Amino acid sequence: LKDVSGVTEHGIYKISEKLTKIGRKEGINHIAIKQETISNQHANIKYKDYSFWIIDRGSTNGTFLNGKKIADEMRLNNGDLIAFDVYDFEFIMPEEDKTVFRQAEETVFRQSDDIEED
C-alpha cells in the first residue's frame, strides 16, 4: 500500500497480515493516518479467497475506491486508488512467482479412463 498523499511516517506499507487495520489511532491500527478527519478505526484490508478486500469500518468521512465511496467490502486490484477521506493510497500487488505457474503448466493430468481400479 503506497502512501500517495505523503501523510504517514512510511511511504510504503507491506500488507502481511490477514487483517490490516487502518485508522488515526496508533497502537490499535497497523497503519496510522494521524489526521483529524480520519476515524480512530477507519477501514480494514482483509485477505480472503486469494484476494485482498477493503472494508470501511463505519468511518465518519468515508473510504473510497477509485473515486467511489464504499458501503460494503470491495475486492482490490493492482493499481486501485484507495482514499481514506481525502488521503490517497495506491494498492500495489507484488509480482507473482512465475515458477508456480510454470510447474502447473508442466503437470500432466491423467485421464480418468487411464487409472486402473484395484
Task: Provide structural commentary.
The structure is a single chain. This protein has 118 residues and is mainly β. Helices cover 8% and strands 31% of the residues. The protein is built from 1 helix and 10 strands. Strands 1-10-9-6-7 form a 5-stranded antiparallel sheet, with no helix packed on it. Strand 9 and strand 10 form a beta hairpin. It is globular, with a radius of gyration of 19 Å.
Spatial shape: globular
Helix coverage percent of residues? Answer: under 10%
The overall average pLDDT, rounded, is 85
How would you name the oligomeric state of the polypeptide chains in this document?
Answer: single chain
- Number of H- or I-type helical stretches: 1
Trace the largest sheet across and list its strands.
1-10-9-6-7
SSE inventory with pairings:
Layout: E1 2-3, E2 19-23, E3 31-32, E4 43-48, E5 51-56, E6 63-65, E7 68-69, E8 74-75, E9 81-84, E10 87-90, H1 98-106
Parallel strand pairs: 2-3
Antiparallel strand pairs: 1-10, 2-4, 4-5, 5-8, 6-7, 6-9, 9-10
Short structural summary:
The chain is mainly β and 118 residues long.
Name its key features.
10 strands, about 120 residues, 5-stranded antiparallel β-sheet, mainly beta
